[in-house]
Structures are given as C-alpha cells and as structure tokens.
Write a structure and sequence with these properties.
- With 456 residues, the chain is α/β, with parallel strands linked by helices.
- It has 18 helices and 20 strands.
- Strands 7-8-6-9-10-11-12-13-14 form a nine-stranded mixed sheet, with helices on one face. It has a six-stranded mixed sheet with strand order 15-16-20-17-18-19, with helices on both faces. Strands 3-2-1-4-5 form a five-stranded parallel sheet, sandwiched between helices.
- Strand 13 (261-266) and strand 14 form a beta hairpin.
- The radius of gyration is 23 Å and the shape is globular.
- It starts with a helix and ends with a helix.
- One of its GO terms (biological process) is cell wall organization.
- Keywords: ATP-binding, Cell cycle, Cell division, Cell shape, Cell wall biogenesis/degradation, Cytoplasm, Ligase, Nucleotide-binding, Peptidoglycan synthesis.
- Its EC number is 6.3.2.9.
Length: 456
C-alpha cells in the first residue's frame, strides 16, 4: 500500500473524465490534495456541477474531450458510465496512464472502515437499510457511492468513521487497492451484458472485484442460495471471513429466515425479529434485511437498537412502492426493476392476480427465469416500450392477454380496464427506461402520475 501512495504523491496532473456527481466529487478531492486538476465531459454538465467547478476554480471542458491534454495526464479518474473499450480509454492505457474509478481514488484518502454493497439487485435498499441501522445506533457513518452521493466529495469535506457504499460493477471495474472491511454480494444475475461483451463471466468477475483486496480479518456477506456465488467461491477460495445469508437453511453462524422470523447469529450475538414487523416486503427484501442485520451484528450494535432501526426504516421510491388502491385494485411502482431477476422477486411478493407492465430497452434478457411465475400469476401483460416484439413473442400463449403501447397513460388505463378488485397492477419493467423516459425515476414518476390521474 505504501508504494501506491508514493506513486500517487508524485503524480501531478489529474484528469477527471465525466462531470456528474462522481466526477465533480473526484475533482474537489484532487484539488484538496494539491493536484493540478482538469475535468472533461463529452456531454453537457448539469449547471449545478458547472457552478461548483467554477466556484472551486477547477478548469473544465464540456461537449468534447481534448485528447492531447488528457493524454498528458499522470492519472485519470474515470466516470463509471464510460466503458473501458472507448477509444480514449484504450489510448490512455496503451500509453501507460493509470485509469481508476472514483471509489478507488477516494479510498486512498480515508482511514474510515468501508462497508461496500453490490449485487445485480437490491443494492440500494440494502445500502439505505444498513446506513439507517448504523446511523440510528449512533455510529459516525456516511452514505455514498452509486446511491447518488460522491464518495470522493465526502472524503474531501467530511470526517466519518464508517462509510456505507453502494457499489456498481462499473465502479468495481477500475479499482486497484479498494479495500472494504465488510463487503456484501447480494446476488449475481445477468445484467449489463452489453457492457461485458455479452459474456456473463466477465460480469461475474467484475462483481467479485469487491473482495479482491480483502483479508482474513475482513468480512464477506453473501447469499448462500446463489449458485453463481457458490461456484465462484469454490473456484477462488478467498481468505476473507465469510458470513452467509439464507432463506432456506437454518445456520449455526450467519443470518437466515425461519418460519417468518429473521434470525441472526454472529460473533456470539443473537437477534430475532418477525419479518412482518419490517416495512419492506417480499423474499428479496428478506435477503436485503438479513444482509444489513449481519453488518450491524458484525459491528457489535445492540440487538434492540437493530430492531428499532428495522422498524423505522423508509425505503427509497420506485422499489415495490404502493402508489394507490383504486376500486380495489392496487397499483405498484417497481420501476427500478430493470432486469429479469428483479421482476422474479417482484412477482414472488404477491399472492393476488397480477397485471404486469413490462418493457423498455432490452439488455439481452432471458425471460425463461420468470416464465413459470408469469404463467401462474399474470392475468395480463402490458408491454410498454418502443419495441415490444421480444416480450410479445416470448409470452404469446403464456398469458391470457397481451397489449402493447408506448404511452404510460395508455398502459395504466389498460390496467384499470383489465383489473378487478383484489388485482395488482405492477410496473416491473425488466428493461432499461431510456427509449421513452429520462431514467427509471422518470418512468416511475410518470407511472405514479398516470395512476393518480385515475382518481380525478
């Protein structure tokens, strides 16, 4: 580690690629450490970040990349949204210029204990819940990463003893020495395959970077029933201390669900709480809750404090969010479900008949994972997107009725037409949103507005 710090100290010119939250934060941290900083964004900066960079006297450009200037850098901190295969990144690496992620850069300037959370699904809920449990127990803890707040920005301006970090595979792609004290891997299912050459193993390798630098004195919390995770652990056999989370097995040491009760036995501490007492529902949220409880247990938080925190938690929007009950039909916004695995868990959360609204930009989805659930639970499929063919073709003859539209209001109206008291109209798209919407939040917000318009 000393050699890495020595390397960074002699690097003077730092270029930040990407001027969003992580990029602006990295620029502020770099300036605070005395580097000559330049930020470059091929798109247009949000005015908020342009104003901040101007205030901090950090030079930047937008609408282009000045390659000659960037290729003269000693170090480049790259936005997670920029793939490694773009020509500029390839050119940097060919020249031997170190390209790292913001989380890697920030981690070099903090002594805080890092709790890093990743997975194809459930990252945000688990991160928010873990942070909530630690915060309400009185720990000096920060929240950052993929959840929206820049880790580097927090490191530059605040002093926390712990950080709870939501970490995406894109952020893990460009780490070198990033070293969590506790890492969590909730699941690995096919996602972002377009970014990983349509090779699932590449995506798996990216996720497993989270334990790359962990040691025997660190902890790795993972979902025991994930065949992908188990296979990789057998292959890699990492030295890190392992904590299992299970929905199917009572564990002598670990956290599990048994007869509707969340049970955690870690480091001699025991905790039990009825899952029904928590504000989050569904089997996927049992995994998320058990994972967060495991972190709190490892940090020695009093069990009663953990119970209090679990009961007072409020989840982020767009995750199985109940919007309204109209005419006995419940409308659920699960717009964050941008892959098939998320929809699997969403459908598993309901016993009522479901009218499913799905569709958008397909990321190489395999719908066989949800075929049985769709056949048994879905009374109607509404395909919302510019290209409905794949979903229509796959589920033709497997659901009683299918309707395609590119208008969210039309989709909601069709759900109302098909619904009867006791039904659930579920927006759980399995796809990205950018064919019709700015992002999944915009999709969820428009869905909620359309539902609430039904009551007017």
């Amino acid at each position: 580690m000393f050699n890495v710090f020595k390397l960074i100290l002699v690097q003077k010119k730092v270029t930040i690629l990407g001027g969003g939250e992580s990029g602006a934060g990295a620029a502020i941290l770099a300036k605070s450490k005395g580097f000559e900083v330049f930020l470059s964004d091929k798109g247009q900066l949000h005015q908020k970040y342009a104003d901040i960079l101007n205030k901090e006297n950090i030079p930047f450009e937008q609408g282009q990349h000045s390659e000659e200037r960037i290729l003269a850098s000693d170090l480049v901190v790259k936005s997670p949204g920029i793939p490694d295969k773009v020509p500029l990144i390839v050119a940097l690496k060919e020249k031997g210029i170190l390209v790292i992620s913001e989380i890697e850069f920030a981690s070099r300037y903090t002594d805080a204990k890092l709790i890093a959370i990743t997975g194809s699904n459930g990252k945000t809920t688990t991160t928010l819940l873990t942070y909530h449990l630690l915060k309400t127990a009185g720990l000096n803890v920060g929240l950052a990463g993929n959840i929206g707040d820049s880790f580097a920005w927090a490191v530059a301006e605040k002093q926390f003893e712990y950080y709870v970090l939501e970490i995406s595979s894109f952020q893990l792609d460009n780490i070198i020495d990033f070293h969590p004290y506790i890492s969590l891997l909730l699941n690995i299912t096919p996602d972002h395959l377009d970014r990983y050459g349509y090779d699932f193993q590449n995506y798996v390798d990216s996720k497993f970077n989270i334990i790359r630098n962990q040691q025997a004195s660190d902890y790795f919390i993972y979902y025991k029933e994930s065949e992908v995770i188990q296979k990789e652990l057998e292959k890699r056999n990492p030295a890190v201390g392992r904590i299992e989370v299970s929905l199917d097995n009572a564990l002598e040491a670990g956290s599990y669900l048994e007869n509707g009760t969340l049970v955690s036995k870690i480091n001699g501490n025991a905790l039990e709480i009825a899952f029904a007492e928590l504000p989050v529902k569904g089997p996927h949220n049992a995994i998320n809750a058990l994972s967060a409880i495991s972190v709190a247990q490892l940090l020695g938080i009093d069990p009663e404090k953990i119970r209090e925190g679990l009961k007072s938690f409020t989840n982020a929007p767009h995750r199985l969010e109940q919007v309204e009950v109209i005419g006995g039909v419940t409308y659920i916004n699960d717009s964050k479900a941008t892959n098939v695995d998320s929809v699997f868990y969403a459908l598993g959360s309901f016993d009522q008949p479901v009218i499913l609204i799905a569709g958008g930009v397909d990321k190489g989805n395999d719908y066989s994972q949800i075929e049985a659930l769709v056949k048994s639970k879905v009374k109607g499929l509404i395909v919302l997107g510019k290209d409905p063919v794949k979903l229509e073709t796959y589920f033709a003859g497997k659901v009683p009725q299918i309707y395609a539209t590119d208008d969210v209001r039309d989709a909601v109206n069709k759900g109302r037409e098909w619904g009867v008291p006791g039904d659930v109209v579920l927006l759980s798209p399995a796809c990205a949103s950018f064919d019709l919407f700015k992002n999944y939040e915009d999709r969820g917000d428009q869905f909620k507005a359309a539902v609430r318009n039904l009551t007017q």
